[in-house]
Every structure is written in structure tokens, then in C-alpha cells.
Amino acid sequence: STEMSTLDSYCLVAGGNVAYDIYKPAFKPDATDQELIKTTRHGILLSWVLGFAMAISFDQMLGLWVFMASILISSVLAPILLGMYVPNFRKPLAGFLSAGLGLVSTVILNIYIMTNGVFDLEEETYIIDWFGIDFMLEFVMYITVPISLIGFFVGVLFDKGDHHE
Length: 165
Hints:
Blueprint: H1 2-27, H2 33-57, H3 61-85, H4 92-116, E1 118-120, E2 125-130, E3 133-136, H5 141-158
Antiparallel strand pairs: 1-2, 2-3
Helix pairs in contact: 1-2, 3-4, 3-5, 4-5
């Protein structure tokens, strides 16, 4: 029952994030409570489907952990640290591009390496040969964090609003 309670809580938080952090600010700022509740329910379903898909996509818990850590680091490290310590960098477009590009690049590279690479039993990870270099799945962040940083600075340059506090 502990697992189900935790799963329920995380799905509710994810659904609330979809409704209050994405839908309302980006698509419908004047959304009613009923619309937000409905969107939260859709977000709960979406989070469950994505979670289930990820759970059955990995043969090992370590692979799933590395994937989730890669997503987290690649999508939120740059916007959180730069936004926290440099007030002039607190731009919505910078955070959106940084997080979005970090997420998308991480997912694409992970899928690419897992489908085109070879699983190494000794290293317990997927490895792909790029330009004569054995590139492990765990090294994805060497590519995705710079992509996230580029997205962040592009967002800073193009977001002309004065949003910092």
C-alpha cells in the first residue's frame, strides 16, 4: 500500500504541474477551476502512461535511474542555477528553451543509443561507437547539458521582457 500511496501522490503532483504550471500560464490564463481539475485529471493519466512506458522500457533499474537523472540534470540544472544566481537571466523563454531542449535532446539521444548501440554486460550499459570512441549511455549529459545551456542563452537573448525580481 505504501507504493500505491506514493504513486498516487506523485501522479497527483504531476497532474497539478500540467494544469497549473503549463496549461494555465501558457495556454489559458483565465481557466476556470473546473477546467483546471479536468486538466489535472488528464495530467494524472498522462503521468501514469509515461511512467508505465518508462518502467517497461528498461531491463535494469540502473538504466532507468540513469535516464531519469539525465533528464533532470539536462533540463533543470542550467535554468535553476543561472536564474537563481544571475537576476538578469530570469527570463521565461530562457527557462522554457533550456528545459525543453535538455529534455528533448536527452530523450532522443537515449533512444538512439539504446536502439543503435550494443548492451555491454561487463559495463551493464549501452555503448555506441561514435568517431572511434566508445560512448556510453551515461555520457549523454556531456552533450545534452551544453544543448540546454545554448537554449538558455538563446532564450535570454530573445526574451525582451523584464521579468527578473
